[in-house]
Amino acid sequence: MNRPAPRSTFLAACRDLLGRDHVLTDDADTGPYLVDQRKRYTGRTLAVLRPADAPQLAALVRLCVAHRVPMVPQGGNTGLAGGATPDASGRQVVISLRRLNRIREVDAANMTLTAEAGCVLADVQAAAQAADRLFPLSLAAEGSCTIGGNLATNAGGTAVLRYGNARELCLGLEVVTPQGDLWNGLRGLRKDNTGYDLRDLFIGAEGTLGLITAATLKLFAPPMARMTALAALDSPAQALALLNLAQRMAGPLLTGFELMSDFCLRLVAQVFPQHRYPLFAKPCAQPYAQTVLLELSDNESEAHARELLERLLAAGVEQGVVRDAIVANSLAQSNALWHLRESIPLAQSATGLNIKHDIAVPVSQVPAFIAATDPLVQQIAPGARMVTFGHLGDGNLHYNVMAPEGVDPARFLAQYQASVTAAVHDSVHAHRGTISAEHGLGQFKRDAAAQYKSPVELALMRALKAAFDPLGLMNPGKVLPD
């Protein structure tokens, strides 16, 4: 029987391959790689390994396979489901892809950009902008998350309504397979009907089928103008009616459509009083149950975008859907409106632990889901405060539950997380939805997701995993239950 070589032999081989400075074993050096973004998981590792490029990563994977060392890939470590955190065994290695950070090519005529997996999303956006192009993926962590992680979790963000998830923004991949082979599928083609779509298997797989090393991404012409507005409404049903109206009147110009509940904006005002909600009737008293932030991206002119947005809101008022509205008069005002939306998670964090859900249901089911699920949560945890916000345009809600006023958040979480989450997930399933819309499964939602998948679906997923990674060394313990 072939037995794995001693740990010292493996680490010595890693140092020979990567150089001493890129094999981290001291606790002070490895610590930042071992805790997830939410500090929900803390693992241990044999070493943090930092390859310089795709061929070196392929050689490293072959070395891990030879020594039967499990591998946990990690980009910016901004994930919210524990997908990039090693377990507590100390036998796994963390493979950091941060050194794979080159923009390999910008093909403005083909409207594509090829970036390595460790490129920070904001740097990819900047490279596109320098070529007078737009890479539209945008999310709160864009200053630190990486393209490899975005694709591994099929990230969403604020512009999915117009441009789609990360999957829709990717034309080709380069991937190191679990055997240490390097597959170059970096094709900048919109049409390629030559067999199985391997690209889509790796996107959203969270590193369990192979390690993404580079991607060819779609670019777009930047809009001539962006116009942002806030609209106040009485219910999620009215927000859905406004969305339908906006889609009819604005069509593909509609880029963002974000729903925020009354309590979300009250929370922001409480934690960040400098962020004034412009539709407050009086300070810290907001009479509207729901607020929508909507944005148009116009390829004609700012005047055209403003005229269209004002007509849209006027039609909403006339139809009894919109109670009040404001259109940004400047880029600074637009940024301030978006800052209200982006401050909701920060306000939650500042007030302590809460029960978070990243769910999606069909857009048409969002009002029914909220109406059915809020009472279920109150039955389980009376007085719980609902922090409901998210991307109504694509059906993705951050359906979060805070402790009642005066109740210790940690105690509330310990007492109610399991029962509240089970009720929310059951309701999501009843409304034909998913329990993970844009954060992935990782280890946090791995077991729960399996409860709602059919035996056929689970069997197909297990067959794929076994075919690609028969030794089970690629990010074990993630996505699929053991």
From TrEMBL:
<dbReference type="GO" id="GO:0071949">
    <property type="term" value="F:FAD binding"/>
</dbReference>
<dbReference type="GO" id="GO:0003824">
    <property type="term" value="F:catalytic activity"/>
</dbReference>
<comment type="similarity">
    <text>Belongs to the FAD-binding oxidoreductase/transferase type 4 family.</text>
</comment>
<dbReference type="InterPro" id="IPR051264">
    <property type="entry name" value="FAD-oxidored/transferase_4"/>
</dbReference>
<keyword id="KW-0274">FAD</keyword>
<dbReference type="InterPro" id="IPR006094">
    <property type="entry name" value="Oxid_FAD_bind_N"/>
</dbReference>
<dbReference type="GO" id="GO:0022904">
    <property type="term" value="P:respiratory electron transport chain"/>
</dbReference>
<dbReference type="InterPro" id="IPR016169">
    <property type="entry name" value="FAD-bd_PCMH_sub2"/>
</dbReference>
<keyword id="KW-0285">Flavoprotein</keyword>
<dbReference type="Pfam" id="PF02913">
    <property type="entry name" value="FAD-oxidase_C"/>
</dbReference>
<protein>
    <submittedName>
        <fullName>Hydroxyacid dehydrogenase</fullName>
    </submittedName>
</protein>
<dbReference type="InterPro" id="IPR016164">
    <property type="entry name" value="FAD-linked_Oxase-like_C"/>
</dbReference>
<dbReference type="InterPro" id="IPR016166">
    <property type="entry name" value="FAD-bd_PCMH"/>
</dbReference>
<dbReference type="InterPro" id="IPR016171">
    <property type="entry name" value="Vanillyl_alc_oxidase_C-sub2"/>
</dbReference>
<dbReference type="InterPro" id="IPR036318">
    <property type="entry name" value="FAD-bd_PCMH-like_sf"/>
</dbReference>
<dbReference type="InterPro" id="IPR016167">
    <property type="entry name" value="FAD-bd_PCMH_sub1"/>
</dbReference>
<feature type="domain" description="FAD-binding PCMH-type">
    <location>
        <begin position="41"/>
        <end position="222"/>
    </location>
</feature>
<dbReference type="InterPro" id="IPR004113">
    <property type="entry name" value="FAD-bd_oxidored_4_C"/>
</dbReference>
<dbReference type="Pfam" id="PF01565">
    <property type="entry name" value="FAD_binding_4"/>
</dbReference>
